[in-house]
Structure formats: structure tokens, C-alpha cells
Design brief:
With 287 residues, this protein is of the alpha/beta class. It is built from 10 helices and 9 strands. Keywords: Hydrolase.
């Protein structure tokens, strides 16, 4: 297994090196970094997937590079570093102003010649892509992996620890030193941004919610709430899956890539059926 993962990481890194890095400017002036690499294995030339990592991750992590490689079998991929993460500037606002980051990445994908763009987000990134799709209406499909249904959730030990880190000066310093993640000390302006459940209710494109039954951060009811709020939604409950990028497998990402491709195919309507089932998942669809 270790040798296989190392081989996958090397293959993903080679694909990334063959791609194109770019500095992007968000609407509020934050300088961002993103990386594009084209589809392989006969992927669609007119479809791009913007991939948005979770908190403390970045496009440079081996797992994110593997995820990008797996998805690029179905589409071109843009890996984005959210503000305060990786090679991007600024400070993380924990899901508030990050919608500008996703919008900049979507615009770049269009400038590269992709007619259709979908988004895939993990944890914090999943909340951001759902909000972005509701507010900016610039994507054809959205995938939310390990999505929180509400802000400020502290119902698990992992989330209580996370709040202690982001809400204290010492904790933010530790995140900067140990995870290279810069968190803004300023709070959100009023009114606070709509949460992912409320944003899901505003979507006009297909939504896929993917959640594991071993998620230590957000229990299953978060996935149910986001899924239930959306008009056109599919829910995959993955048995044995943990949280976000760390638990993502090649099989899961290939199935997600196939679902995205299915949603934006043929007539370009952005909604073609209820999605694809896959082994190891309990699937619920609503239309």
C-alpha cells in the first residue's frame, strides 16, 4: 500500500509539473495561487473542475495532488489555494470571503477555454463552494465532501479543539507555525454569511453531498440537512469513510468525476439526471 501511494503521488506530481501555475487576484484584492493541469485519459476538453481544499490543506499536499490527478481523468482540474493557505496571500476568514477565491479560480478556468466549470470542495472548501454557487451562479454542478451544515458547530471533540485554535491568539500562532495556515483574528461582519444549509436552498444547479459514517468533525445530520435543503440533490453516505481529503480514495474520486461529467454533458443544461451510484455508498436522490 505504501509503495502504491508513493507511486500515485509521483504520478500526480508529474502531472502537476506539466500543468500551469498562475497568480490570481480575488475581487477584494487578495493575491491567490492556483494550478491547472489538463485532462488525461480522454477527459472532456470543455469541462473543468475547480478543487477546493479543507482547512489547513493546500494544493501542494500529496493527497490534494492525488485527488487532482484522479479527477483529471474526467476533466481539466484547477487546484486552488484558499486565502491564508499554501502559496496564497491574505488570511483565512473560515468560509466568509473565500467565495471570492473560488470565483477567481472559476474565471481563470473559463479564460483557459473551458466552457463549463464545476466545483468540488472538502470540509471548509465544501461550505465555500456551496455558498459560491448560490451567490455567484457561475458553475454547472457542485460537490460537497464532508460539508458542515451550520457555522460555529462544536458538537464533536475535533470541532471544539478547532475552535480553541482559531479563536485564540496562541492557537492562531500554532496554526501558522505548524500548519502554515494564517487565520484572520477579525470576526465576521454583520449580517453573517449564510450557512451551507441555507445556501443549498438557493442552488439552481445539481448538488452532490458526500459524507462518511466515520467523520469525527461533522456527524451525518450535517449532510442530511444540506441535502434536504437543495432542490436537485444527491447524497452519498460512504461506509467506512472519515473526513474530507484524508479519507478520499481513488474509487471515490473517480465516481465523483463521473457524476460531475454526467451532470454537465450533452445539452449543457447542467442537470442531467440524478447522478451515479457507486459501491460502498448509500445513495439518496431528490429532484
Amino acid at each position: 500500500m505504501r509503495n502504491w501511494l508513493a507511486s500515485e503521488a509521483r504520478r500526480a506530481q508529474r502531472a502537476t509539473r506539466s500543468g500551469q501555475g498562475r497568480r490570481l487576484l480575488a475581487a477584494d484584492g487578495t493575491l491567490l495561487h492556483a494550478w491547472h493541469f489538463p485532462p488525461h485519459d480522454g477527459g472532456r476538453d470543455d469541462l473543468a473542475i475547480v478543487v477546493v481544499h479543507g482547512f489547513t490543506q493546500s494544493s501542494r499536499s500529496p493527497q490534494m495532488q492525488r485527488i487532482g490527478w484522479w479527477l483529471s481523468g474526467h476533466a481539466g482540474v484547477v487546484l486552488l489555494d484558499l486565502r491564508g493557505h499554501g502559496r496564497s496571500g491574505g488570511h483565512s476568514t473560515l468560509g466568509w470571503r473565500e467565495v471570492h477565491d473560488v470565483d477567481a479560480a472559476v474565471d481563470w478556468a473559463h479564460s483557459l477555454g473551458y466552457a463549463r466549470v464545476a466545483t468540488v470542495g472538502f470540509s471548509l472548501g465544501s461550505a465555500v463552494v456551496v455558498r459560491h454557487a448560490a451567490l455567484h451562479r457561475a458553475t454547472r454542478a457542485v460537490v460537497a465532501v464532508s460539508v458542515p451544515g451550520e457555522w460555529h458547530y462544536r458538537g464533536t471533540a475535533a470541532m471544539r479543539t478547532l475552535h480553541r485554535l482559531i479563536l485564540t491568539r496562541l492557537g492562531r500562532g500554532l496554526l501558522r507555525l505548524t500548519r502554515r495556515t494564517r487565520v484572520s483574528p477579525a470576526g465576521w461582519a454583520e449580517p453573517q454569511p449564510i450557512d451551507p444549509r441555507a445556501a443549498a436552498a438557493e442552488l439552481d444547479v445539481p448538488l452532490l453531498v458526500v459524507h462518511g459514517d466515520r467523520d469525527d468533525y461533522f456527524p451525518l445530520h450535517h449532510a442530511w440537512h444540506v441535502h434536504s435543503a437543495a432542490t436537485d440533490a444527491t447524497l452519498w453516505l460512504e461506509r467506512g469513510f472519515g473526513h474530507a481529503e484524508a479519507g478520499a480514495t481513488e474509487d471515490l474520486m473517480v465516481r465523483i468525476g463521473a457524476w460531475v461529467s454526467e451532470q454537465v454533458r450533452a445539452d449543457g443544461s447542467g442537470a442531467e439526471g440524478s447522478g451515479a451510484d457507486g459501491s460502498g455508498a448509500d445513495t439518496t436522490s431528490r429532484a
